[in-house]
Hints:
Elements: E1 7-15, E2 18-21, E3 24-28, H1 34-44, H2 57-70, E4 82-88, H3 93-104, H4 113-116, H5 123-132, E5 138-142, H6 148-160, E6 166-175, E7 178-187, H7 196-204
Parallel strand pairs: 4-5, 4-6
Antiparallel strand pairs: 1-2, 1-7, 2-3, 6-7
Helix pairs in contact: 1-2, 2-5
Amino acid sequence: MKKNETYIKSYCTIQNNEVILNGKIIFKSESDLFSDFSKKVYHNFEINYSKFFKMDNLSKLAFLAADLLLKEEVDSISESDIALVFANKSSSLDTDVKYQNSISDKENYFPSPAIFVYTLPNICIGEISIKYQLKSENSFFIFEDFNLEFMTNYANVLLNTNKAAKVLCGWVEYYNEEYKAFLYLVTNEGKLNHNKQILETLYKN
Length: 205
């Protein structure tokens, strides 16, 4: 199988109350809880998805970064051709803890279905797929750290085997108000080479 060159078309980082798109800060706010910050980002970019406010924080984080990268793509490519490949360290632990708290008090036992539905990390992929009507390949991996080599190889396999025309990849970590999203769109055309070294530089900046 001939391996084609792959490229990073665009990338987005959300952390420390800032939204950075392709290396430029496009939104920032004063120190807020993530729930408040995420609402400000949602309204600032005029996102229209009412279910957003019911999501857990991990899904909100992934959704916001993905929306900034995908909103220009859906009109130019079949929805089935954009794959989603995400990873993080804590899985859905932040939401798992909240759910556990809702059932641990025997005198105030109230398991919440609204919280329970987000006790899997790949639910954030589902939210993005629903918004953009994606019917594509998707995976969510758990690593101790962002495994750049694995993610690079996985995206390249999807592209080189024609399983996808584009791949939205990245790291989406949220636990106890500590958060970082780093998503990037990989394609067969572009100027920024898709490789471990460049990704490491973009991720750390």
